[in-house]
Every structure is written in C-alpha cells, then in structure tokens.
Amino acid sequence: MRFMRASSKIDEKSLLFWHGLCFFTLSLTLKEPFPKLGKKSKSNSTTMAKYKLEYIWLDGYEPVRNLRSKTQLKDFASFPKLEELPDWGFDGSSTQQAPGGSSDCVLKPVALYPDSTRKNGVLVMCEVYNADGTPHASNDRVTILDDPDAWFGFEQEYFLYQDGRPLGFPENGYPAPQGPYYTGVGYKNVGDIARQIVEEHLDICLDAGINHEGINAEVAKGQWEFQIFGKGSKTAADQVWVARYILNRLCEKYGIDVEYHCKPLGAPDWNGSGMHCNFSTKHMREVGGEAYFLALMAQFEKNCMEHIAVYGPDNHMRLTGLHETQSIDKFSWGIADRGSSIRVPHSFKNNGWKGYLEDRRPNSQGNPYQVASRVLKTISEVAK
Question: Contact at 8 Å (CB) between 106 and 57?
C-alpha cells in the first residue's frame, strides 16, 4: 500500500527519468538493441542451401533412346518447386540431337523427385527443345495423348549383367534350366548381389515419391522386374524413365550393367524381357460391359501392327508364340491367358467386364510415352 501511494505521486519528470534508466539498462544487455530500419535482423534472415539438380533427358539415338543427365547447383531456401527450376542448355551434337555447327538444345523441366542418395539432391525429368523454342524431334513426351483418368501399370523386366553375361551365369555355357528362378529365394537362385541392388533401388524410388508397386525375381536367372503405377500417361511414363535412371546409376557402384534388350540371350530356351502395360480408363472401370469390351478388342486387333511399331525394337525375337507370348503378327485375347496379346483378368469378367486389362506385347526397351499414347489412341477410336 505504501508503494502504491508513493507511486501515485510520481510527477512527469520522474517518469521521464525512469523511462530513460530502463532504456539505458536494456541497451547494455544487447549488442544491437534495435535493428536498423530497412534491414532484416539476423534472426529473421532466410537460410539458403545449394541444391544438386540432376537434369535427366532422353537423347536422339534410334531405335532406343538413352538416358542422359548432368548436374547444376542452385540456391533455394527449401526443396524447389517445378516452376522455380530454370531451363538449361546443352550440347546436342554429342547426343544425336543437333549438328556440331548449331548444337544448342534446351532442357525444360517437367517433373521433379527428391534424390535421397545426395544431400539436397533433386532428380529433374526434362523434355528437349530446340533453341528456337520448338519441341525437338526426339521429344516423344510432348505430343502424346494424356488422360488423368487413364491408369497405367508398367511391369519393367530387365537383366543384371556382369562381365558380358547375366548375373549368375557361368563363364561358359548356361546355368540350370529356368524354373526355380521366378520369385526364387536362396543363393543358388538369385546369388549374393542382385537382391541387394533390387532392394536398394526400391528404397531410392520410394524416397523419390515414385509409385513403385512391387519387385520380384523373374523367370530367367539374373532377370528381375519392378512395377510402376501412375494416373495419366505422362505421370506413369515419367516415373518409369526415372526409375530406370535410378537403377542404371545405382548399378555403377556394383560394377553391373542393366540389360533392357528384350531377348539378350537370343534363341535358346530362355525367357525374354517385357514391359507389360496394364491399363484402364474411367469408362472401363465404371461402365465397361461385354459389348464395349468386344468392340475394344476388335479395334486393338485392327491396329495390331501400329501397336507393334512402338512396342520396342527386336520384338520379333520375343513375340514368337513361345514362352508365354503371342506371335508378333497375330492378335488374341484370353481370360488369364499369358500366351495372348491381351490378358483379361478373372476379376475383369467377374465384375461385369469392368476394370483393367494387360497388354503383354510391349517389350523391355519400349518407350512408355509411346506405349501409353498408342493404347489411349486405340481406346479413343471405340464408341462408348
């Protein structure tokens, strides 16, 4: 009470004295009592970090595009957004995309993924453009049909190769005939390195946000498969290409190559490699019906050779009518028939002819942009 009474009698000069004393005391405890106008305080400044942007693109080689990449460093406050990434020029004369006298080409980012193998790493899928801003002739992505309601699942098969032969093959001759290798377990079936590579590849893809659906050892020794699912042809195909890139790069440290050729062992009794394309549209999933399905199959048969033209090179070596394939010059469909051109799952028929179908003809070197686009084009020609 005495303090309150004394306080109530403080005059204006006393108040000014006390305010000045408090300000003086505060200034002694701070190096910079107040930030200068027009400048950010250190505590509020944005911390920038260098991000390693790995620009990935497809070159101009025929009949199979090769993956290429190069890194540039850019400062960002956090993981960049697609629209923040710049276009980037490159020498197209070294990638079969330009003559030496006018070699400038341009990379335009179209999708990006975190790269867990590098600090602040980013995988950037790109399209290739000419210096004048027009799409390059090798740009298979820009012109494809796309539909966000079209779902694609690609089953990418491949061989792991070391010293010029499939992993696990003896230096001369062949291992035991195929049979125990598909989904096999144990050293004699899969060796000591393959599963380590496959598992590491899976983890890197998942870290990148790629919609990896599964992995398994395949029919031939040294042969494996991963599955990618995506909504929209561009999204699904982008992820297949980036997953291929991750696998190729990963195998570098193991001294192993990835062989995507559809029949690397030639004529002997060993399976080839495919990239089976599972597909559905909104109409196929929600409406369907037997009449629509039969009309769809008739159109696929009519366009048989147009599909074969973009389903990967050397497919005549793989689509022979043997090893669960239909002959390259024929078209067929069958319920649960792996020897047909298009396999119809039991679930499709049992659900009123609704759901997804599997085109088994695309091979392991097929370009998923072209494969998905060709499937959508044939579907678009069928009346609903």
Answer: no
Q: What is the CATH number of the domain that holds 363?
A: 3.30.590.10
Tell me 48's DSSP state: P
pTM of the model: 0.88
| Token pair belonging to 71 | 């890194």
Q: pLDDT tens, 206-234?
A: 999 999 999 999 999 999 999 999 999 99
| Alpha carbon 268 to its chain's center | 32
- List pLDDT tens digits, range 353-375: 999 999 999 999 999 999 999 99
Structural domain contains residue 313: yes
Taking the C-alpha atoms of residue 28 and residue 159, their distance in angstroms, rounded to an integer, is 72
Q: How far apart are the first and last CA of the chain?
A: 90
Distance CA 110, CA 112 (A): 7
In Å, the largest CA–CA distance within the chain is: 109
Number of Cβ within 10 Å of residue 165's Cβ equals: 17
Q: Is the same domain home to 95 and 189?
A: no
Would the CA dihedral through 299, 304, 310, 312 be positive or negative? positive
Token pair belonging to 199: 């598992």
Q: In whole angstroms, what is the distance from residue 174 CA to residue 165 CA?
A: 10
Closest CA to 279 of 381, 141, 372: 372
Q: Give dist(CA 204, CA 89) in Å, integer.
A: 28
The answer for residues whose C-beta is within 8 angstroms of residue 45's C-beta and 6 or more apart is: none
The CA–CA distances, whole Å, from 207 to 57, 181, 202, 258, 358 equal 21, 28, 9, 21, 28
Q: Are 378 and 299 in contact (CB under 8 A)?
A: yes
Domain enclosing residue 315, as ranges: 151-380
User: Which residue is listed with tokens 């590579």?
Assistant: 197
Phi-psi region of 360 (alpha: psi -120 to 50; beta: other; left: phi over 0): alpha
